[in-house]
Structure formats: structure tokens, C-alpha cells
Q: What sequence folds into this?
DNA sequence: GATTAGATACTCGGATAACGGCTGTCCGAGTATAAGGGG
DNA sequence: CCCCTTATACTCGGACAGCCGTTATCCGAGTATCTAATC
């Protein structure tokens, strides 16, 4: 899995508590990560329609939808790509004892098992929204999001 | 995910129906895949204790345990490695507004969500055994495993 | 015919290159802002 | 005092290298089998 997923999720949580656009460079120095690379992830999120980019001098990124309607799965798929990790090569149709194509209407047992597991993984990620994450952060570390919100609108040191 | 997982699973299903050791080269040409690379995957399975290697002229690989006691998760972890796909970098402890370490006793909400999803994925794979896969293949394509078994002990064309 | 020594051929095992994708970086296009001059 | 033009500085967006993991491959160590000679 791409490591940028973690950055993207944290940025989405931060964007939950700000109303003004937050620049990518500011988010980068907040998390102490590479600004250019974080920009790439934010571009992916913007392309997926999860966040909206505002250009100009006071521009930046804001959430495109309600935090409760953005799931963790949305972010993961936007950054890592929607294609599943396991892809069946249909090797049962290859080799000297290949099974005839007319007997391969349904996916094989291995492909079904893998697909089911990924489906369970996907459902678990779909069940959690960005709002849930923000609520949890606010409960374990009260005032953190508010402090970040005020820090974001301050001029850099 | 590593593509060799599919090969390893198919090989395990094939090994279910043979009592004599099956050489890696024979399994490779049965599935029409690279012999050398398949050997690597089988080595991983052997190192994990799932299959047992028999050396010598009539050597090869056989299942080390009962097919019902080998889960798909065992094979996936043996080939792909046991380390989870998502690793928390603890970026909440970095940057100008880093949360103090004494407040980071428990994993953050993001890490917990990801861990929960991977746990669900893992449980789904643990619920299916190699015996289940073989039974399914035998029902959808009767006689296939028996044919493979006889073909494996024949001399190569 | 049984036994034993040897040669053989086949097996796995680990060490070694080539490719693709993730990681990291850069500069150009575009725009809201701010300043400044004029009415 | 208000408005318009201009310059500015800041933003995103896509195009460009570097590194690590997966893919693919090879040859050497080791052993059960087969052969053949001997008793």
C-alpha cells in the first residue's frame, strides 16, 4: 500500500476543522513531510472529487463534501487507485491440462476467496468516515484540531 | 500484493491430490509459468513449514500438514510476508504542533481503522482452507484433480 | 542370487541481475489579492 | 471618497529523475536411485 495514504487521511481530518482554504505547503510543514510529494496526494484527492482546490493568493484545499459523507475507503481508493490488490491471471486456462473456457464462466475458488476478503476489507473502510476520525481525535486529544485551525491561518515563522 | 500468491495457492491445491512428491519444474510447466520464479515461491512455502521438500531423484514438494489445517492466510503470509500493508508513521508526533508522546499511548484513530480493516481481511482468508479450495475445484470441474495427479507422474513429452 | 561400491541424474536452496512502481522534486499556467493612480 | 488599471505574489497542476521491491534467472550443494561388478 502506498505510504501517502496516511498523509492524505491526516490532511482530510485537519481539513475537517477549517473553513478557509488550507495551502498544501502549510499542511506539509504542519506534518513535517515533503511538500511536493504531499501536493501529489492532494492532487489525487482533488481529481477524485473529495476535496476542492481554490486558486489564487488565499487559495488552498477545502473539503468538497460533508465530512460524514467521505469514507476512509474513498481516500484510500483515490490515492492508491481503485484496482484491487489481487488480480486473477486465469492460470487454470493455461498449460497442458488447461480447463476449457466454457467451464470458466464463474471465477475460480481462489479468485472468489480473495475477492471476498478484499470486499470485507473494503466494507470495514467504508464504515468509517472522516467525521468519525475527527470525532475520535477530538475526544482523545481535546483542542488539538482547534489549535491546528488557528495555527493554519497564522503567518509562517 | 505479490502476484506469486496465485501460483502458490494453485500449487497447494494441486498438492492436495498427490501423495508422491511433485517437482517444482513439473508444477511450473503444468501452469505454464516461469520455473525459476515458482521455485522461489515454493521455497517461501517450505520455509514457512507449509510444504515439505524431498530431495533426491524422485524428490519434490508435498504438503507438510493436513489440507484442512492450512489456511489461505498461511499461504499469503508465507509468500507476501507477515508484515501488514499499512504501517503508521506516527506523524502526529511530528511537526510544530506535535502531540506530546505521553498522549500517544494508544494508536491513533487512523491506525486503528486500518488495522481493523486488515484484521477483517485476514479473518476472511483464515476462514478458508486449502481443503475447501480443493473441494470447490472438484465440484465445479470434476475429475480435474485426478487428471492432474496422473499427469504429474507421467514422463514429460 | 544377494550385496556393495560407484556413478548418475535429478532434486532443492540461496545468491545474482533487470524491470516497474512508489517516492521525491521541479518549474510553468492561472487567479484572487493588493497597491496605486485617476476621476 | 470611489473606481479602474496594473502589478504582484501566491496558489495549484502536470511533467521530470531516483530508489526500493517485485519479477525473473542462474548455478552450486545434496541425495535417492540405478548400474554394475563382486562374492
A:
Amino acid at each position: 500500500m502506498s505510504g501517502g495514504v496516511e498523509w492524505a487521511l491526516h490532511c482530510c481530518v485537519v481539513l475537517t476543522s477549517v473553513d478557509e482554504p488550507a495551502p498544501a505547503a502549510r499542511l506539509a510543514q504542519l506534518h513535517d513531510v515533503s511538500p511536493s510529494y504531499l501536493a501529489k496526494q492532494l492532487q489525487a484527492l482533488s481529481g477524485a472529487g473529495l476535496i476542492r482546490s481554490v486558486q489564487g493568493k488565499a487559495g488552498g484545499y477545502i473539503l468538497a463534501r460533508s465530512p460524514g459523507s467521505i469514507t476512509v475507503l474513498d481516500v484510500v481508493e483515490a490515492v492508491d487507485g481503485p484496482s484491487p490488490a489481487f488480480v486473477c491471471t486465469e492460470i487454470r486456462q493455461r498449460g497442458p491440462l488447461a480447463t476449457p473456457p466454457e467451464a470458466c464462466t464463474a471465477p475460480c475458488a481462489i479468485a472468489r476467496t480473495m475477492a471476498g476478503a478484499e470486499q470485507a476489507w473494503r466494507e470495514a473502510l467504508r464504515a468509517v468516515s472522516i467525521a468519525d476520525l475527527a470525532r475520535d481525535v477530538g475526544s482523545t486529544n481535546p483542542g488539538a484540531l482547534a489549535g491546528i485551525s488557528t495555527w493554519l491561518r497564522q503567518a509562517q515563522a
In short: Residues 21, 23-25, 39-40, 42-43, 46, 53-61 of chain A lie near DNA strand D (CB under 10 Å from a C1'). Strands of chain A lie at 51-54, 60-63.
